[in-house]
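Q: Structure tokens for this one, please.
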Amino acid sequence: MSNQTSQSFPITTALVFADQTVVEDLGLVFGVVVRSMGVAKGFAAGFKALAGGEVTQYTKLVEDSRRHAMDRMIENARLLGADAITAMRFDSSEMGQALTEIVAYGTAVKLAARS
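A: Here is the predicted structure, written as tokens:
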């Protein structure tokens, strides 16, 4: 799914939306991505890390991975019939020396406009 998806689907890190009421909790949804930098990019990033400063290759990888994990989470929420996601969080961990796992998770909910 494209980044447009995450922009058009309401998501908050809070437990509620200020202008809408949660009318149904549909449960936990998540999106998981496991990524590898690749040998060539990893080699170049290693040299950059030795020099100090931001390692832009890793920054781009993490940003892209988070977007991808969010898109998967949104897709799972839509499959449950959700209108939005509350309590959204990210988590990440390393798997071995070359792999990084990014998880986006939250609670899928149905909303109603506040009167």
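A few notes: The longest strand covers residues 20-36. The two ends are 33 Å apart (CA to CA).
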